[in-house]
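Quick one before lunch.
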Amino acid sequence: RAASNWCYQIQLKSSNITCLGPADWEGDCKKDNQSPINIDTSKAVFNQSLTPFSFSDYHKKKNWSVKNNGHSVVVLLENEPLIAEGGLSSKYQATQLHLHWSKKLNNGSEHSIDNKHFAMEMHIVHEKEKGSSKSEKASGNANDEIAVLAFLVEAGSNNDGFQALVDALSEIPKPGLSTKLKESISLFDLIPEEEKLKEYFRYMGSLTTPGCEEKVVWTVFEKRIELSEKQIFAFSEKLFFDDQMQVDMTENVRPVQPLGKRTVFKS
Ligand SMILES: Nc1nc(-c2ccc(Cl)c(S(N)(=O)=O)c2)cs1
Ligand SMILES: [Zn+2]
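Model of the 6CC complex:
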């Protein structure tokens, strides 16, 4: 069971509450197939089974609910959008999306590409569709139970698709607060256009938050998302880790973990 009082490094210094920083995270956090990682592009192995994804209901616009869960801002996707193919073993349903970020434009992504970090990283979390057979229901602890689509974010032009989410941030400054997006948006409003999503990296890893379960098939897209600096900084300015609103929610990024014996593949 994950420690309920886990926190990021930045919270250790600035809050008088005692919490467990990344070096002390429990659960599976000390095992050897952990995420995030640095992706050394020169060592990524081409894998022809990494075909393009098929996205279903990613065009569906909804006033999703958005929550400050004390570690990130989470958009609840109610299992509606679906992904398949993309070298995945089955269909997966989107449950939530959340982001990781920093006040520095080169320190907010969890994954790095050739040791370069980006301003933010967005994770769309999907769960494997429960098949009908008993065996499929029984297991539930396969190493690909969860599929996360990871998008790196860099500072650039303003991103209209993100503005509804950016505007919602000031309504949920404290942990536990949630609101509804004032304008309905679709996942396609948030991610690069589909034909730019054919190039991606793939590896087997874990949740980047405690209990760090090693059940995630990771996809890190090469095409970056662009947000304006104003949009990027809104996350660190409007959100707080604590009820007293003393500790900005920022640097909610786990340090990169050893690749170990794993291989990173590329489409
Ligand atoms: N309490 C929290 N849990 C998460 C979370 C949940 C599931 C997953 Cl898969 C992830 S991640 N960063 O590995 O994509 C994060 C965020 S904040
Ligand atoms: Zn994440």
